[in-house]
Amino acid sequence: MDGYSYIVFDIDDTLLDFGAAYAAARKDMAALLGIRDDADFEKLDEKCGWKAWAESRLDDTGDPEVQAHYHEYYMQYVHMHFAYLREALALECDPDKLAACYLDSVSASIVPMEADTLEVYRALSGRYRLVLASNGLTKMQTQRTVPFAAYTYRTYISEAVGAIKPTAAFFEYVLRDLGCRPEECLMVGDSLSNDMRGAKAAGMDVCWYNPRKKAMPEDVEIDFVIGSLRELTEILPQ
Predict the structure, then answer these.
(1) What stretch of H or E contains 197?
(2) Whole-angstrom distance, CA of residue 52 vs CA of residue 171
């Protein structure tokens, strides 16, 4: 623990609230469709979204085929989602326009997970080199993390890296580009599969961001667990 030089942060649901981003996108999509963003629309949209997500296999990040085609499958998911939604609503709306609306809305969302997220991040940047490491589309994630850019040493987005978390290729790329040893890095993230397992397999220490207080897994080695980002200032050396 005394040797950390880099703190590697996941983005979605660690620094930024993806649920808030999606809620904003759903509101914009309802406006485009000319309908109310009410509970019925939310339920229908969620049903269509999970159907498309499952069919696109985006949870199977351990599968080599998904790893090789993740970003292609992600765009497939987006377009399938809104094709299903249009069909369910029986409305004449181009699903490509809905997809573009969704991508633009999510890209514009910078709602932090906690009120003091940026304050904590800025404070840590005075003691460590801060790194962002995320699965996702380069344009979207770069736009969303603008508030953090001034305090960030390096940013690694899977589309640009050419590999996704939790693959060894992703973390090897990060370590090679940073020019450091894995024990110099602490990975902070909410995903047990992508962040905790991936970083641990690469030799990094890991910190599970667990604000919902989920049960500790038995099959993942975790060095630290935090319920808020401010707790990082307490567990890291002064």
Answers:
(1) none
(2) 28
